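Protocol step 4 of 5: obtain the predicted structure for the target chain.
Materials: sequence only (see below). No template structures provided, no constraints applied. The aim of this step is simply to have a reference model before the mutagenesis design in step 5. Sequence pasted as it appears in the construct record:
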Amino acid sequence: MSLYNDIRVKTVLFISWTALIFNVNAFSAQQLFPFQRFTFAPNNVCTNPNSFYSTKTVNGTLQHLEFTMRNVPGEGDCIFLAVALAASTSLGLGGNNAFLRAVKDEAREVVAQILSAEGTLHIEGQRIVRAIDLLRSAAKNEQLDNEQYLQMLRNGTLQGGGTELTVLSNVLRRPISVYELVWDEDKLGGHIPESCEVKCVGTFGDIFIDPLLDIPNHVILSGIQEGAYSWHIHILIVGAGGGEKHACSLLPKTCC
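Step 4 output (structure tokens):
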């Protein structure tokens, strides 16, 4: 799938009519091929590489996250399917393809309703945007009017991107982080590593903090089931060839 025609995840924030844009920059030609060489089990869990990791500094502290990656069908709905899978897994549910396909149409309708409603949405930090302004910006980016955008969103013609992730993070009241592969084909020499690095390129809804973090020794945060009960939703965007992008779910090995 493509995340907008220019292959970017982006959302627009109207604060003093200034745009804030999260970009997932276009992948190089070398980065278009790794995902096509990955190996998956029948349940769509990636087995080679069998793990993914991200390292970043948060408030002066080095944070290391490890994930299992699970693929979703590439049918033009992968953003909605990947978010639905991550959300269902966070509840301890598996989320098979039939379930995900049933949910994605309702998710599209919910996003359309929110974008056409009165009120504001949270974007990042303390910044908010009017839903109608977000809709106008998204429609303009696709060279559509508002009603055309909503119609295409509802009927599945429009593939999701930053606008839809913004709304979904507000509906779920959870942060949604977007990642890309860190890949050096020359260094790897065609080899698929067992563990693959990913880089966070943006987070929607970072204000939505897990309320359980302030409860000492809470059982949900104890790691009783790998990949389950994570508050934070993590989405990996990969090159799928032909200038297309595809979204997958990154499921944390520990709650985060």
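Step 4 remarks: The chain has a mean pLDDT of 81. The radius of gyration is 18 Å.
Proceed to step 5.
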